[in-house]
Structures are given as C-alpha cells and as structure tokens.
Design brief:
Strand order of the largest sheet of chain B: 3-6-7-2-8-1-9-10-11
CATH topology of chain A: Nucleotidyltransferase, domain 5
Distance between the termini of chain A: 30 Å
Shape of chain B: elongated
CATH architecture of the largest domain in chain B: 3-Layer(aba) Sandwich
Number of helices of chain A: 3
Number of helices of chain B: 11
Shape of chain A: globular
Number of strands of chain B: 11
Order of helices and strands of chain A: EEEHEHEH
CATH superfamily of chain A: Dinitrogenase iron-molybdenum cofactor biosynthesis domain
Helix content of chain A: 25-40%
Radius of gyration of chain B: 22 Å
Helix content of chain B: 25-40%
Structural class of chain A: alpha/beta
Structural class of chain B: alpha/beta
Radius of gyration of chain A: 12 Å
Strand content of chain B: 25-35%
CATH class of the largest domain in chain B: Alpha Beta
CATH topology of the largest domain in chain B: Rossmann fold
Number of domains of chain B: 2
Oligomer: heterodimer
Order of helices and strands of chain B: EHEHEHEEHEEHEHEHEHEHHH
Largest sheet of chain A: 5 strands, mixed
Distance between the termini of chain B: 13 Å
Largest sheet of chain B: 9 strands, mixed
CATH architecture of chain A: 2-Layer Sandwich
C-alpha cells in the first residue's frame, strides 16, 4: 500500500509540512517495496483558493490509500473522502517518523477536518 | 459623472471622503457602497431603506444519470469548483465563477444551473431624499465580491453625480468598482504603508487610464514620503485633511467629517467642479 505524507523536502528525513493543501510536496511511500516517490505540490503554494482540493486530487493521482499531515481543511477532507483515501493526523517531526507512527498503529483515522479553510 | 474613491491601503478614510462628497453637494447625488465585504457608508448616511434584494449567481448542478464521469468539466474548471475522481464531479459552489465552461465541455449535457445567493443589495435615500444610497453586502461565507459589485453598479444613473466607495487594495473587487468611473480620488495617509499602497493604486489607475488625484488624510502627521512621491510623479494632491481628535470622536458616534471640521465643507463642495475642469 502507498502512504502519502505532506513533506517540506524530498527525503524521508524531511520535516512534515504543516499544511496539507499548500504542502510543498508529498512523499509517497510504498510499504511493499520500501521505496518512495515524490509528488510535487508547489503549484498550489500561491493558489488563491481551492489549494486543498487540488492537493487532494494530486494525492489521489499517486494511488495512495492513506495520507498523513498535521492538518486537513474541510474541502480537502471532502475530496479525500470521495477518493476513498484515509486521512490521518500526525504531529510527527519527520516524514519517516510519521510513517513509523502509522505502521505501529499509533495514528487513528480522522473522520473530520481539524482546521477551517484558509487556515 | 462617476467619482470613485479608492485607496490601496485600508483605513485611510475612503468612506469619510465619499460620504463627505455626497453630503457637501446641494444637488441630487448618489452614493454607491461597493466595499461589499464591509460596507459602512450607511452608518454615516443613515438612509431610509426602501428595498432589499438578493444577489444570485448560477452554479452547476450535475445530473448523475446523464454524467459519464469523464472528468472533462473538472479538468476545464480553473477555480477547482468541480472535482472528478472517476466519479460524477463534486461541486464546490463557493469557488464557482459562473463562467459556464463546464456546461460547454460536457459531452452528455449533464450540467444545468441552479441559483445561489452571494450577497444583498440595499436601496434607500438619505438627507430628505436628496442622496440615493445603494449598498452591496457580501453574504457571510461567500468570497465572490465582483457579482455583488456589478449588481450595485446597475443602479448607477447617468444624470446625477455618483460617488463610488471602493474596497481597499488593487484586486478584482477594486477593478470591478473602478470600471465605469470618470475620475478616481485616491485617499492615503502620510506613512510608509500609505505610500507603499498608494503606489500600487496609482499603477492600477494608470493601467485603467482613468484620471485621478490624491487626498491626504491626517496630512499633518507622519512623514513627507507621500508628498514627495506626488511631486515626483506630477500627481495633484487636491485635499489635505488634518488630523483632529474631533474627527475620531465624530466617527465613533456615526458623525461625518463636517461635524468635526465644518470649514472643510466648502472645499468638498468644490471638488466635483475642480475635477470637471481638470478632466476637460
């Protein structure tokens, strides 16, 4: 299965990005092969509106079944739900930590947005 | 004639100036509040409200029977108002700009339109009927100011002096408000912030090709940056409003500029005439 993590850099040691919609990218980690790819999300950094929607479509395009970020807004959450992607909220420092937390079952699935739009 | 009062920076005194302009006149005039995110001219003009109407925009409605989930509409939409994930699209009406493109690209005719409210127009009269007051107010939760501003502007008549109270900034709502203006008064304050945003406003008005001049509010405070800039750029400063405690006191109770500084009334009465001479 693939796990997408909001990331401000391009390695597993990169800090988790604080925002979902305007994260600079997503590290998409494949738990079967233990490899990862990067989905760029910088095109959303300066979007006036709809960044969360675009980011959720971006994640859906990677084939990830799980996404981890510290915060999700309401529209992003709605699109992730429609795409059947499970959202997990984590305050882990690095992408690797977030993946480890998920693997060890420390994260529980979020069933609502935890921040308002334009957070 | 339409005079638009704009500023760049917020809080410089646009409404104070716009209200003063209509109050100083002795002829029939109109005041149009296009600062639809926070219209406040009515606090000072206290119009008797005659009519209230909704501002409606059209957003797409998907017929899921006809939709083949092809995703063309979502790929077309530049505002992310439609999202397709191999499913009939999700619709986010608050992001829709009502351009109609999704309906055109839909191969199966699955898109029709439904109306949603984005704002409210209030029509009234002030000063014994002499001042016609039109106010636009954006609904809470809506972010589409331009349709509300467009509807305010439909009430502008050609035969009377109309003063448009613009929103701050230089983005779409300001451009929409300035659209048909014959002249722009840019209100600023003598501070680095005031100067910075005045420059943006001047660039905007120059691109639009509308003649303009500057009003400096609280001119006796701050620094000389705005005056220096106006000299360098050959921009007329047509009014300087002093900084007075009485102005803040009047403002706090819904009073106007002339309640605080009565001697400015004559000058404001002259502004439309000065502008007409300048434009000709």
């Amino acid at each position: 299965m693939k796990i997408a993590v909001a990331s401000s850099g391009k390695t597993l040691e990169s800090p988790v990005d604080g925002r979902f919609g305007r994260a600079s990218g997503f590290i998409v980690f494949d738990t079967e092969s233990n490899t990862f790819t990067i989905a760029d999300n910088r095109q959303n950094l300066n979007a006036a509106q709809g960044a969360g929607i675009q980011a959720a479509q971006n994640v859906a395009g990677t084939g990830a079944g799980v996404v981890i970020a510290p915060n999700f807004g309401p529209k992003a959450f709605q699109v992730l739900g429609a795409a059947g992607i499970k959202a997990f909220i984590s305050s882990a420092a690095t992408v690797q930590d977030a993946i480890d937390e998920y693997k060890s079952g420390k994260l529980s699935e979020s069933n609502s947005a935890n921040v308002q739009g334009h957070w | 004639m339409i005079i638009a009062v704009a500023s760049g920076k917020g809080g410089t005194g646009k409404t104070t100036v716009a209200v003063a302009l209509v109050l100083a006149s002795s002829e029939p005039v109109a005041y149009a509040d296009c600062d639809v995110e926070e219209p406040n001219g009515s606090i000072f003009l206290k119009p008797e409200v005659a009519e209230v109407e909704r501002v409606l925009v059209e957003v797409p409605d998907i017929d899921e029977e006809k939709c083949t989930s092809c995703g063309k509409c979502a790929r077309f939409c530049q505002f992310n108002a439609l999202v397709s994930l191999g499913t009939p699209p999700l619709v986010f009406p608050e992001l829709c700009h009502s351009c109609g493109g999704c309906e055109i690209v839909c191969p199966t005719g699955a898109i029709s339109w439904r109306k949603v409210s984005v704002g409210e127009i209030t029509l009234g009269r002030s000063d014994g009927g002499r001042i016609s007051v039109v106010q636009g107010k954006l609904d809470v939760g809506s972010s589409l100011a331009p349709p509300v501003i467009r509807q305010v502007k439909t009430y502008i008549a050609d035969d009377v002096l109309t003063v448009i109270d613009c929103p701050p900034g230089t983005s779409c709502p300001v451009i929409e408000s300035l659209g048909d203006a014959d002249y722009v008064l840019l209100v600023t304050e003598p501070t680095p912030f005031g100067l910075h945003d005045l420059k943006l406003a001047v660039e905007t008005v120059r691109v639009l090709g509308i003649p303009f001049s500057v009003i400096i509010n609280r001119f006796d405070e701050g620094d000389s940056g705005v005056e220096d800039y106006c000299i360098e750029e050959s921009i007329d400063v047509i009014v300087r409003i002093p900084h007075r405690r009485e102005m803040a006191e009047a403002y706090s109770t819904g009073g106007n500029l002339f309640d605080a500084i009565p001697e400015m009334r004559e000058l404001f009465r002259e502004i439309p005439r000065i502008i007409v001479r300048g434009v000709k």
